[in-house]
Design goal:
The complex is a heterodimer of chains A (about 100) and B (about 250). Chain A is about 80% helix and about 0% strand. Chain A is built from 4 helices and no strands. Chain B is globular and about 55 Å long. The chains are: A mainly alpha (about 100), B mainly alpha (about 250).
């Protein structure tokens, strides 16, 4: 793996930090001007969920049947227990177990 | 804690007492923050992110899911534009979190707001809002105490995970490569608001899978998110009179 330039790493972290701070502080300062309803608000409210779904969908498919099974188990445990950590552990356990049974 | 009977109203206390009370109130969630952070630490070590870089990220970005996304996208040369946009999109909820804290910060100086607001994460925000609902008022010291508790747990968890991750030689054997997917799947489920999310989420998943095949890099994340959220906004256009449940 090529050595990552230190500068590049801190640039990426700095940009992410700035974006996040701008949202936190911006929300506080602009609280009275943010839309409370309407289409833009619906769009914004839907964004965190759709972003996470988009993040996982290709990865689950790429992991094959064991990935799909693990994804379903993770979702089921998360839904039932509301415990993200436990759900994650179950998903990883299913993948580790199925890999041992069906290698490749 | 000099007087026990004061505990139930102490969320409004300013200064050190409020700080301490906020810190203590967040200890239960801090345990899960540390556990979850340890996974991020393991993954960050696998991506050759140094413990110092991770520490800087913890303190400066201080947002769990966004940091997971960053570490997931951390493949040199770093896709800084895609990464920043993805962090922005996933953290858009902080705009609403920040706005919801306006009553807590009312009457405080610009500097006070600017320095305290950074230490707001999902967890201590939720604890603060719950305290406010219960007691009618809450101080910014309580909020900050919670933030300090969460950031400490976050650093402790991620850094111990990092130590562990550097020792893991074969991540595939422990399904560590699947950890990202599992975390994000669980987090997505925690954001599920009901049947209304079904169509936007299906659109998002379908678009992401398509874009991932067509475009290089990580654009499929934003592509799917935009398509899914747009479909949510479009389908809402007729039902706008119905107030969204708060």
């Amino acid at each position: 793996m090529p050595e990552l330039h230190e500068m590049e790493a801190y640039l990426a972290i700095g940009a992410a930090a700035l974006a996040t701070y701008a949202l936190r502080f911006g929300g506080l300062l602009l609280s009275s001007r943010l839309p409370r309803g309407g289409r833009f608000r619906t769009f914004m409210d839907a964004l965190p969920g759709t972003l996470l779904v988009s993040l996982v969908a290709p990865g689950i498919l790429a992991a094959g049947p064991s990935g799909v099974l693990a994804g379903c188990c993770t979702a089921a445990v998360a839904y039932k227990t509301k415990n993200v950590f436990l759900a994650m552990m179950v998903g990883m356990g299913v993948v580790a177990a199925t890999r041992r049974i069906l290698p490749g | 804690m000099k007087r026990k009977e004061q505990v139930h109203t102490s969320a409004h206390l300013d200064g050190h007492a409020g700080l301490r009370r906020g810190f203590a109130a967040n200890l239960p969630v801090a345990a899960s923050v540390a556990a979850y952070g340890s996974v991020l630490g393991v993954l960050a070590a696998q991506k050759h992110i140094s413990w110092f870089q991770l520490l800087v990220m913890n303190v400066s970005v201080f947002a769990g899911s966004a940091q997971f996304v960053m570490v997931d996208m951390w493949v040199p040369p770093l896709p800084i534009a895609e990464m920043t946009l993805a962090v922005f999109a996933i953290n858009l909820r902080y705009l609403l979190i920040g706005a919801s804290l306006e009553p807590v910060f009312r009457g405080t100086s610009f500097w006070h707001k600017a320095t305290r607001i950074h230490w707001v994460a999902d967890e201590n925000w939720a604890v603060t809002m719950a305290a406010r609902r219960r007691w009618g008022d809450v101080s910014t010291a309580f909020l900050l105490g919670g933030g300090l508790c969460v950031v400490s747990a976050w650093c402790l968890g991620t850094l111990s995970g990092h130590l562990l991750g550097a020792a893991v030689k074969d991540p595939g054997a422990y399904a560590l490569d699947f950890a990202f997917i599992a975390v994000f799947t669980a987090l997505a489920v925690s954001l599920w608001r009901g049947r209304g999310d079904a169509v936007p989420w299906l659109v998002a998943a379908g678009t992401a899978v398509l874009v991932e095949r067509v475009l290089p890099g990580k654009w499929y994340i934003l592509g799917g998110a935009l398509a899914g959220s747009l479909s949510a906004a479009m389908s809402k256009q007729r039902g706008e009179e119905r107030a969204p449940d708060a």
